[in-house]
């Protein structure tokens, strides 16, 4: 291939890259309609959930509200069935998923992520009087998890020496975590695999007598998910969140929900 042809191909590449970059009007559309619609699972405390008055509150809710204020748009929270939330995003029923969304290589194929803003673990809860004392005791037991949540994958692909996925009696999937825990209380399942932040907050606030097994099924990072081609919107939201971290606003929100600044913790 001669030099002139290479130069021509390079110029064409630059041209089309610029054209496609300039065609991303995702943030301008948000400005034009004046609203930023965030999809969430309304049962995922403390990230996003309903209080006793039916209002949606939470850590991610407070972050999203402040970002929207800085972007000078109205924030709208749209509850979704978690198992179909990517469908809602793809079909433009929501503008982003901001609700403890785990970043994974599989999900990166479907959506565009912000930078990670939080770390978390998937743990196992049992009833306080359960004879299950450690992960190894899960062999032959019925374990529950939320459908579409990373906990399902962590159980099915667990590589530790404690138990084998094939030795579980059954993996039962529920629409949300509270339903799984309700069945745990009633004895329908023996254990529930769930995000640690939910496990700690929910059991504390609900005063339920669960016990968290030592160890964990996996670690993960949370990010905000956008449609794959909406880089402009992602970057504006990321810039606003970065400024909140820099000026201490994010730390105040974190301490409100976790009694510590999670933005200063580097676990990965």
Notes on the protein architecture:
- This protein has 2 domains: about 15-120 and about 220-260, D-Maltodextrin-Binding Protein, domain 2; about 120-220, D-Maltodextrin-Binding Protein, domain 2 (3-Layer(aba) Sandwich).
- It contains 10 helices and 13 strands.
- The chain has helices at about 5-20, 25-35, 60-70, 85-90, 105-110, 150-155, 175-185, 195-205, 230-245, 250-260, and strands spanning about 35-40, 45, 50, 55, 75-80, 95-100, 110-115, 120-125, 140-145, 170-175, 190-195, 210, 220-225.
- Strands 1, 5, 6, 7, 8, 9, 10, 11, 12 and 13 form a 10-stranded mixed sheet that branches. A 3-stranded antiparallel sheet has the order 2-3-4.
> Which parts are unreliable, with pLDDT below 50 for 5 consecutive residues or more?
15-21
The CA-CA distance between the termini, in Å, is: 44 Å
**Count of alpha/pi helices:** 10
Q: Roughly what percent helix? A: 40-55%
> What would CATH call the class of the largest domain?
Alpha Beta
Average of pLDDT: 90
Short descriptors:
268 residues; alpha/beta; D-Maltodextrin-Binding Protein, domain 2; 2 domains; three-stranded antiparallel β-sheet; 13 strands; 25% strand
Write the layout of secondary structure elements.
Blueprint (H helix, E strand, L loop, with lengths): L2 H20 L3 H8 L1 E6 L2 E2 L3 E3 L5 E2 L1 H13 L2 E6 L5 H6 L5 E7 L2 H6 E3 L4 E10 L14 E5 L3 H7 L13 E5 L2 H10 L4 E5 H11 L3 E3 L5 E10 L3 H17 L1 H10 L10
Parallel strand pairs: 1-5, 1-6, 9-10, 9-11
Antiparallel strand pairs: 2-3, 3-4, 6-13, 7-13, 8-11, 8-12, 8-13
Give a quick rundown of the structure:
This protein is α/β, with parallel strands linked by helices and 268 residues long.
């Amino acid at each position: 291939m001669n030099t002139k042809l290479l130069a021509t191909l390079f110029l064409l590449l630059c041209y089309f890259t610029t054209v496609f970059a300039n065609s991303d009007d995702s943030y301008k559309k948000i400005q034009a309609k004046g609203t930023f619609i965030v999809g969430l699972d309304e049962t995922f405390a403390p990230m996003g959930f309903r209080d006793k008055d039916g209002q949606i509150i939470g850590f991610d809710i407070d972050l999203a509200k402040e970002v929207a204020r800085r972007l000078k748009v109205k924030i709208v929270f749209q509850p979704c069935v978690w198992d179909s939330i990517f469908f809602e995003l793809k079909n433009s029923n929501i503008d982003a998923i901001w609700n403890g969304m785990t970043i994974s290589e599989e999900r990166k194929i479907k959506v565009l992520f912000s930078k990670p803003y939080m770390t978390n673990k998937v743990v196992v809860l049992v009833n306080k009087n359960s004879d299950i004392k450690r992960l190894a005791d899960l062999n032959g037991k019925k374990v529950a998890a939320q459908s579409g949540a990373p906990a399902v994958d962590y159980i099915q692909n667990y590589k530790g020496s404690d138990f084998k996925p094939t030795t579980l009696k059954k993996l039962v999937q529920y629409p949300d975590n509270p339903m799984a825990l309700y069945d745990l209380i009633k004895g329908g399942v023996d254990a529930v695999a769930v995000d640690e932040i939910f496990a700690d907050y929910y059991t504390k606030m609900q005063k339920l007598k669960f016990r968290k097994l030592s160890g964990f099924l996996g670690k993960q990072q949370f990010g905000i998910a956008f449609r794959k081609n909406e880089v402009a919107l992602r970057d504006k939201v990321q810039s606003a969140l970065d400024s909140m971290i820099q000026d201490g606003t994010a730390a105040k929100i974190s301490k409100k929900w976790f009694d510590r600044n999670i933005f200063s913790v580097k676990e990965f």
